[in-house]
Design goal:
Layout lengths: L1 H101 L2 H5 L2 E8 L6 E3 H8 L8 E10 L2 E10 L3 E12 L2 E10 L7 H13 L1
Parallel strand pairs: 1-6
Antiparallel strand pairs: 1-2, 3-4, 4-5, 5-6
């Protein structure tokens, strides 16, 4: 019986030790699991923070690039529009020279605004459209061939200056303004003049003074 009791006690002790070991193992595993969970949570938190910061950095870096692309597009759009406007304005000036050469006055004066001004080579020639038409229509026209032209655009206004060659007068200059009117470029002012070389400027101006005294 004692042997059996001892054996039972040993067995009981063994069982108890096993139970205790099992409990210790479970407790250890629970602790490790808790630690692992804490570590995982901490790692996950760090990972999320890194991703959030990374995302913010990406957005911060992307914003200037996106803005620059938009700006480039706007700038490109502005340049395209400007080029298109200037081409249309240049065509108006080309037609002006063609129609004056053909004495096609209906088409010629259609290129001007109704309140347009023409300034001729004589000091007295500052004409509105009615006066200019009265002068032009009885004539057979005049010819000026384009040599060089410059256009400067400010919104719906284009300033121009051009060098022309006239079979009658030689080198001539046209300057003026076009204004976009009802979607079309119209001439608001045209000034025709004869450039004087500096070497003979005093001689010419002296002759002009003399002519004005007569």
């Amino acid at each position: 019986m004692l042997k059996d009791t001892h054996a039972f006690a040993v067995k009981g002790t063994t069982v108890n030790r096993a139970a205790n070991m099992s409990r210790a193992t479970k407790a250890s595993r629970a602790t490790n699991a808790s630690r692992a969970t804490s570590v995982n949570r901490a790692s996950l938190g760090l990972l999320l923070s890194a991703l959030m910061l990374g995302g913010l950095n990406v957005k911060a870096q992307d914003s200037p690039t996106q803005s620059a692309q938009t700006q480039d597009t706007q700038v490109q759009g502005t340049q395209t529009t400007s080029s298109s406007d200037q081409q249309a304005a240049a065509q108006v000036l080309d037609l002006l020279n063609q129609y004056s050469s053909d004495a096609d006055w209906d088409k010629y004066f259609a290129l001007y605004r109704k309140d347009g001004i023409f300034i001729g080579t004589d000091a007295s020639e500052r004409w509105g459209m009615a006066e200019f038409e009265h002068y032009s229509r009885p004539t057979k026209g005049w010819r000026y061939d384009l040599t060089e032209r410059h256009l400067i655009q400010h919104g719906d206004v284009i300033l121009f200056d051009e060098l022309l060659n006239s079979p009658t007068y030689g080198v001539s200059r046209g300057t003026g303004t076009l204004i976009k009117t009802d979607g079309y470029w119209k001439i608001a002012q045209y000034h025709l003049s004869f450039p004087i070389p500096n070497e003979i400027a005093k001689q010419i101006t002296t002759e002009i003074k003399a002519a004005n005294k007569q």
